[in-house]
Amino acid sequence: MATPAKLGFIGLGAMGFPMASNLISKSAKGSQLFIYDVSEASMSRFAEKHPNSTVVCKSPAEVSSSADILFTMLPEGAHVKSVYLDPATGVLHDGMAAKILVDCSTIDVDTSLLVLDAVRQSKSHSGVSFFDAPVSGGTLGAEKGSITIMLGIAEQHDPVYPVLLPLLQLMGKHIVPCGKPGMGLTAKLCNNYCSGLIALATAEAMNIGIRSGMDPRLLARVFSSSTAQSTICDTWNPVPGVVPAAPSSHGYQGGFKVQLMAKDFGLAMQAAAKAEATTLLGPAGLDAYRKAAQDPNCYDRDSRVVFRYIGGDEKWQEKL
Amino acid sequence: MATPAKLGFIGLGAMGFPMASNLISKSAKGSQLFIYDVSEASMSRFAEKHPNSTVVCKSPAEVSSSADILFTMLPEGAHVKSVYLDPATGVLHDGMAAKILVDCSTIDVDTSLLVLDAVRQSKSHSGVSFFDAPVSGGTLGAEKGSITIMLGIAEQHDPVYPVLLPLLQLMGKHIVPCGKPGMGLTAKLCNNYCSGLIALATAEAMNIGIRSGMDPRLLARVFSSSTAQSTICDTWNPVPGVVPAAPSSHGYQGGFKVQLMAKDFGLAMQAAAKAEATTLLGPAGLDAYRKAAQDPNCYDRDSRVVFRYIGGDEKWQEKL
Questions:
Q1: Which of A18, A319, B75, B147 has the most other CB atoms within 10 Å of its CB?
Q2: So what's the ipTM on this one?
Q3: Catalytic residue ranges of A
Q4: Domain A186-319 has what CATH class?
Q5: d(CA A219, CA B239)
Q6: Domain residues of chain B, as ranges?
Q7: Which stretches of A11-99 are assigned E, i.e. beta strand?
């Protein structure tokens, strides 16, 4: 970006903080970032890190009064609703300057489309765009700027795309236009539904092998060269000691937390119900992630901890 | 192989025929293949194809009386039991010449270990080895000689391995020593359990996306660059029109038939029960493959036809 920009970021949590940090530190010199978070401590920490470019605001409304392009990264649909629509403090208000609103939260599609509708229907917001843009790649990816951003936009038709793309590229590596509003969220929820089931299937299959006397490293090699190959098996293998760099080999630390998988999986099941799509494996998958998220031996660990949840033998190496 | 060999092959079905064909046609000049099949027509067809090297036998016992190394490729455990152990016609008998017995059938581990036990306990068979060696890669792979062979052997310790390896390489591309007897079957069943669940999970996830209005080609691209990546998604995608070369794009013709997946999945569930391994997704997966195998719209199709079985929209392209 050659021209200094007036940007906004609301929600400086585990993902939002490093994303906003990349956004402003890689933007053109002289750019400003208007920030808001419910935690004043987070805002102070951010302002200390970027003292010359941060403007701390008192509400989402204050951010949208100043920033031209605004990003939000919030935990759940209810937060997105209130951040955008609250009559007193919300982003949408008559004095809004922002023309492009991008919600990076992973929430249900309906809430996202409800906000889009509010943006479209309000007369004072003509020319304002709103996009769903959930991300994947975890906190480490957010720090490195290597996340994937799934954007609910029709690449070919939307004049905003060329404006937005270079900004998104400051925060992420793969920017995937997903066709139309809501499709960014749909893509993310479908991906996590599938990925969650692959992890559980791989954990179960490897557990059968281990308990039958097979070395799981050999078994993973068979999978990788055959039809059970997956990125989960190759990079995020649920069995400790099979992939040295995987969270499972380090007490399931880091990675994608099991309670977030439970949340996303639940949202995917909602989307499936709404679309009247059959989910034969879904109920057992959702039950496993929800229960694992409540299990003190699994909570806050990488979601591939489902291997532990199903009673997988983590000390297989001692028995070979 | 420089020296002519006396080889045997029992079971000239969809897989056995092309495997035996590769075995003899790539063997050293002057090698002989002693064959047996319940179908005389299959034996005649094979003898016509390899007139100078085939010896048609009247029973498994006759094959093992002449061949030094013998392969079997049979549909189910019951066939393996009778082909090896039948007192009148079975492979194991006092006049047996064969020293290396290799069963390539996909059967339950218990039956395989039972045959191994019979080989080991019989006094007249000292020095005879028996291995489980199931294959993957389908009939096309068997014809091309590109199958993977999972061998129940400890590579480092077994003196038979260097004798067997060059012969297996005439029939397959990847030979994977799996550690010990029964582990070839264990590896194959675990792989197909996992692969069957990945296919169903991918079908369900893509169906959610399609019914929510997303282009499945875009969705597959998201999966491939994210945590839902798998060989099933990239090469065997269950949704017609996503991967042009996949069976799904050609009326689910070719590939790995759904009734065989149902069989292997059932064997994997048996293995899991025996090993007391938890299968949270297994029951729903087994039920889906068994019912799909009985559905006239799915029977005899590639197993990724589960997309059709769950009511997936195969005409999504007309609605974009």
A1: B147
A2: 0.93
A3: 188
A4: mainly alpha
A5: 28
A6: 6-179, 186-319
A7: 32-36, 54-56, 69-72
